[in-house]
C-alpha cells in the first residue's frame, strides 16, 4: 500500500490531465488486471520473476534470494494487480478538480508543483483515499495471483486468503470459519469506509 | 483536520503491520519443507515430534508432487522435498537441483472412500462402484488431477484396471492435489473418491465416512522419495536423518505407509 500510492497518485493525475494521443492505451493497460483472470496475471508474473529472467537475476544479484515465492515477489505482484483500484478513483478525482481551477491557481502565481500540492491534492484526496482503501481491501482478498507467484509458504507468502484455502484442504473447518469471519469483518469495515469517503467527496464538490 | 490524519495513519499502520510481523517471524522460522499432499497429516505429526525431541522447527508446505516440482524448478526456497512419485526427485537430480538422488521413505496406498450419508457399496475391486455407474447412480467421484498428482495417476490406473475409466470420466472431479480430492469427496454431495490411505487414517477423517483399500496390484506402486535440495541447512539435514530412525518410521507406519527395509 505504501508502495502503491506513490505510483497510483501521479499516474492518476497524469491520466486525468494529459492530452496525449495514446492515453487510452495506457488507461487500458492499467485496468487490465481488473478484467484478466488472476491465473493469466500469475502466469506472466511467475514467468517474469523466474530465476533465469532479467528481473529474477537482478533481484538475485541485489538480495541473493529468489523473487518468485518470496514476500517481495507477492508485494510486487500485489502492486501491479491493485493498480486499477487505486488509479481509477484518483484519476476521476483529479478530473473533477477541473482545468479552470488549475488555471486559476497558475494565475495566482503558483508553480505547477505548488498548485498540485496545495490545490489539487486537497481537493482530490477523498478519491485517492477511496482508491487506497479499495486497494487495501482487495489486496487482503487477492488469491489467484498470490497463490501462483507466492506458492503459499507459511510466514512468507501465505496470506489470510491462502490460509483459508489451506485450512479447508486440511479438513479444519473451525480454522477456516474463524479466518473467513475476520476477512469478512475487515472487508465490511473497509468498504463502509469507502462509502463514507465517497459521501464527503460529494460535499466538497458542492463547495466551489 | 485531525480525523483525516487519523484515517491516514490508520491506513499506514495497517499497511505496514504485516511487513513488520513478517520480518519478526522470519528470524525464528525453520527451513521450508515441501511435502506431497498425502503427507498432510502425517507430516504435521512428524514435525511436532521432531520439534519436541530436538527443539528444531520445520515449516511444511503441501501440494501435489508435480506442482512442487514446478515450484522448485521456478526457484522456490525449499530445502527438503517429499515426493509421492520418485520420478520427480530423479528429474530434479538430473537438473542439478538436489544434493543426491534421494532416499525411498515409503510406499503409498490408495483407498476408495464414501462420505457420510453416501450409500456407495465399497469393495476392493470397485465392483459396487461399477454397478452403481451402470445404473447411472454415481453423481461425482473425486480424484487428484492425474496430470501432476501421483495419487491421481494411480487412481486413474486402478479405474482402468477395473474397466471403469471410460464410463466414469464424465462423473470425475479433479482435486489440485490428493488432500483436496479428499475434501471434494467428503463435501458437496459427491458419491465418493479415490484418495491416499494416509489421509483417511488421520484423526480428522470423519467417523461416519467409510473407506476400503484398493489392491496394490491394480496400479503402479507409489514409490515415495525424499531428497535434500541444494543449499539445505543444518535443520533440514537433521530432519532428513531423523526421518529414517525408528520414531519417524513408527509414525509413518501408523498412517498406513509401507516402509522400505532401508532407504
Structural description of this entry:
The complex is a heterodimer of chains A (208) and B (263). Chain A is mostly helical and 208 residues long. Chain A has a single domain (4-206), classed as MetI-like fold (Orthogonal Bundle). Chain A is built from ten helices and no strands. Chain A has helices spanning 4-17, 23-35, 38-49, 54-63, 71-97, 99-107, 112-141, 144-150, 160-169, 173-206. With 263 residues, chain B is an alpha/beta fold. Chain B folds into two domains: 8-107 and 222-254, Periplasmic binding protein-like II (D-Maltodextrin-Binding Protein, domain 2), CATH 3.40.190; 109-218, D-Maltodextrin-Binding Protein, domain 2, CATH 3.40.190.10. Chain B has helices spanning 2-28, 40-54, 65-73, 86-94, 127-134, 150-161, 165-168, 178-186, 197-200, 234-242, 246-254, and strands spanning 32-36, 59-63, 80-83, 103-108, 110-114, 141-144, 172-175, 192-196, 210-213, 222-228. Chain B has a five-stranded mixed beta sheet. Chain B starts with a helix and ends in a 9-residue tail after the last helix. The interface between A and B is medium-sized, with 31 and 34 residues.
- Helicity range of chain B: 40-55%
Largest sheet of chain A, if any? none
**Number of E-type strands of chain B:** 10
Report the span from N to C terminus of chain B.
Answer: 70 Å
Cα gyration radius of chain B (Å): 21 Å
- How are helices and strands ordered from N to C of chain A? HHHHHHHHHH
**Strands of chain A, count:** 0
Strand content of chain A: under 5%
The number of helical segments of chain A is 10
Oligomer: heterodimer
Largest interface here, residues on each chain?
A: A-B, 31 and 34 residues
Order of helices and strands of chain B: HEHEHEHEEHEHHEHEHEEHH
- Number of helices in the DSSP assignment of chain B: 11
Report the structural category of chain A.
mainly alpha
User: Which whole number gives the mean pLDDT of chain A?
Assistant: 81
Mean pLDDT of chain B: 89
| Helix amount of chain A | over 70%
Amino acid at each position: 500500500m505504501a508502495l502503491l500510492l506513490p505510483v497510483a497518485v501521479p499516474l492518476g493525475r497524469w491520466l486525468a490531465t494529459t492530452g496525449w494521443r495514446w492515453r487510452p492505451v495506457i488507461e487500458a493497460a492499467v485496468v487490465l488486471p481488473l478484467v484478466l483472470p488472476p491465473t493469466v496475471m500469475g502466469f506472466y508474473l511467475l514467468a517474469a520473476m523466474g530465476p533465469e529472467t532479467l528481473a529474477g537475476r537482478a533481484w538475485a544479484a541485489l538480495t541473493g534470494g529468489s523473487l518468485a515465492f518470496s514476500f517481495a515477489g507477492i508485494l510486487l505482484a500485489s502492486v501491479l494487480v491493485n493498480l486499477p483500484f487505486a488509479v481509477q478513483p484518483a484519476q476521476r478525482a483529479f478530473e473533477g478538480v477541473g482545468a479552470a481551477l488549475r488555471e486559476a491557481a497558475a494565475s495566482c502565481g503558483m508553480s505547477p508543483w505548488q498548485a498540485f500540492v496545495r490545490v489539487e491534492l486537497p481537493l482530490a484526496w477523498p478519491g485517492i483515499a477511496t482508491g487506497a482503501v479499495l486497494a487495501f481491501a482487495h489486496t487482503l482478498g487477492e488469491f489467484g495471483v498470490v497463490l501462483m507467484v507466492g506458492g503459499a509458504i507459511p510466514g512468507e507468502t501465505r496470506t489470510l486468503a491462502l490460509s483459508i484455502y489451506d485450512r479447508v484442504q486440511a479438513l479444519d473447518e473451525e480454522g477456516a470459519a474463524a479466518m473467513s469471519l475476520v476477512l469478512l469483518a475487515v472487508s465490511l469495515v473497509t468498504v463502509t469506509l469507502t462509502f463514507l469517503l465517497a459521501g464527503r467527496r460529494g460535499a466538497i464538490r458542492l463547495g466551489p | 483536520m485531525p480525523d483525516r490524519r487519523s484515517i491516514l495513519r490508520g491506513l499506514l499502520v495497517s499497511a505496514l503491520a504485516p511487513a513488520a510481523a513478517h520480518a519478526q517471524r522470519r528470524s525464528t522460522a525453520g527451513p521450508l519443507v515441501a511435502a506431497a499432499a498425502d503427507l498432510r497429516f502425517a507430516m504435521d505429526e512428524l514435525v511436532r515430534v521432531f520439534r519436541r525431541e530436538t527443539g528444531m522447527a520445520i515449516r511444511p508446505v503441501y501440494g501435489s508432487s508435480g506442482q512442487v516440482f514446478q515450484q522448485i524448478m521456478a526457484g522456490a526456497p525449499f530445502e527438503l522435498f517429499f515426493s509421492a512419485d520418485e520420478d520427480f526427485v530423479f528429474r530434479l537430480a538430473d537438473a542439478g537441483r538436489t544434493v543426491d538422488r534421494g532416499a525411498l521413505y515409503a510406499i503409498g496406498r490408495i483407498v476408495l472412500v464414501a462420505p457420510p450419508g453416501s450409500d456407495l457399496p465399497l469393495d476392493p475391486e470397485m465392483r459396487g462402484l461399477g454397478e452403481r455407474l451402470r445404473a447411472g447412480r454415481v453423481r461425482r467421484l473425486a480424484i487428484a488431477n492425474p496430470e501432476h498428482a501421483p495419487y491421481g495417476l494411480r487412481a486413474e490406473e486402478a479405474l482402468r484396471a477395473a474397466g471403469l475409466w471410460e464410463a466414469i470420466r464424465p462423473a470425475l472431479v479433479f482435486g489440485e492435489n490428493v488432500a483436496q480430492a479428499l475434501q471434494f469427496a467428503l463435501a458437496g454431495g459427491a458419491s465418493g473418491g479415490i484418495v491416499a490411505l494416509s489421509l483417511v487414517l488421520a484423526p480428522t477423517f470423519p467417523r461416519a465416512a467409510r473407506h476400503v483399500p484398493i489392491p496394490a496390484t491394480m496400479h503402479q506402486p507409489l514409490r515415495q522419495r525424499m531428497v535434500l535440495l541444494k543449499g539445505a541447512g543444518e535443520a533440514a539435514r537433521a530432519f532428513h536423518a531423523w526421518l529414517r530412525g525408528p520414531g519417524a518410521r513408527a509414525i509413518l507406519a501408523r498412517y498406513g505407509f509401507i516402509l522400505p527395509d532401508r532407504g
